[in-house]
Amino acid sequence: MRVDKFLKVSRIIKRRTVAGDACDAGRIVANGKAVKPSYQVKPGDVLEIAFGDRILKVEVLTVAEHASKDEAASLYREL
Q1: What average pLDDT does the segment 41-66 reach?
Q2: Which string of DSSP letters, residue by residue, matches 13-70?
Q3: Which domains does the chain have, with CATH numbers?
């Protein structure tokens, strides 16, 4: 699954276009490298998302096309 879609489905970022813009700006890092919105996320990847001066670091546990509000938090683990 694309990283911009994963960020939306997991509800880390509310909109896919905002997630894509964050990737284009270099604020999304996967396994130590800045990624484009088309980067394919897989379980075990470590994502670092920069929100202003705060950095959220998460590990991808599972990838799902759709997730309810309750299931969204189970897709990743904060580090």
Answers
A1: 94
A2: SS-HHHHHHHHHTT-EEETTEE--TT-B--TT-EEEEEETTEEEEEEE----S---HH
A3: 3-78 (3.10.290.10)
